[in-house]
Amino acid sequence: MAAPTPAYADGPVAALRRIAFLLERTRAETYKVKAFRAAAATILPLDPEEVATRAREGTLRELAGIGASTAEVIAQAVEGRVPARLARLEEEAGGALVDGGDGIRGALRGDLHSHSDWSDGGSPIEEMAFTAIELGHEYLVLTDHSPRLTVANGLSVARLRQQLEVVEAVNAHLVAAGSTAGTGFRLLKGIEVDILDDGSLDQTDEMLSALDVRVASVHSKLAMDKDAMTRRMVNAVANPFTNVLGHCTGRLVTGNRGIRAQSQFDARRVFEACVEHDVAVEINARPERRDPPTRLLQLAIDVGCLFSIDSDAHAPGQLDFQVYGCARAEELGLDPDRIVNTWPADRLLSWASGGAGR
Ligand SMILES: [Zn+2]
Ligand SMILES: [Zn+2]
Fold first, then answer.
1. Which of 192, 263, 285, 316 could form a disulfide with 222 if both were Cys (CB 3.0 to 4.6 A apart)?
2. Considering its fold, how many domains does the chain have in total?
3. Domain of 21: which CATH number?
4. How far is the CA of 216 from the centre of ligand 1 (A)?
5. Coil, helix or strand for 7?
6. pTM above 0.85, yes or no
7. Averaged pLDDT for residues 290-313
């Protein structure tokens, strides 16, 4: 006799979102995830009665964005059963991503590096925020790309200005909907600003000063000569707006974008500049980055740097990547108080604005 199907009370939107989350956290290709996010967005505004009727009558697929597999998930959830696809994924993809890291992960209160579909992320701002709340975060810094990174649809001054209004609206909505009740969650204004060839930052001072947190990263000319790259990075770190030095070597160690060697620079000088200017070195948790490499991470610890363990999520499920960075930090015995995103939001914000005020 077959085991009875477990009951499921969360409804079809939650089932579709959970499937997408599990696919994203295990780095499934975007096209596999898109269908589930699109289907969730389609049925979210509908009357649940209509969804139930359509599920019974088999007319879900008449709705834009609903296909065979998403219709099946919806129908099973509507009947109060755990959708088969969800049950399978929970088993395959719901477990721990990595051995260790739980202690530091438990101490993290937020994430300082994330992207939405305003630049090269795959999901709307509010979906990133909802998922951050579900992960227990007290804050998420939205850090879409800056203008010169055209391949990633970097934000012009005008679009960034518009985005800041959207961030305020999302926060107001979350408070009004009671979504922030448990954690006091705040979506913070940020940017992943390109470090230009001479070390200057790719956004106006006026806009940079309107933000809560600024991550500065090198994305171009990674193969630059060592002395020039050192000057470039030290300049960027010395910029009073810079709070976090993002994925410092730019290396790629695995994944479908291929392998890329780390850029060459005088790491001791760069990390000493980080200490001097109160800039945190990012431990970029994306599995294909693992940046900085262990030798450099140990050097940054020895030099006395602060750190930020960031997901660099380009999709909601990727917000769960942080634990990879936590495992690395734990292995090297990094003191959690030196990780700025273990700090409460107020302490984080005062640190970040101190940087801007010097
Ligand atoms: Zn980046
Ligand atoms: Zn990024």
1. 263
2. 2
3. 1.10.150.110
4. 8
5. strand
6. yes
7. 98
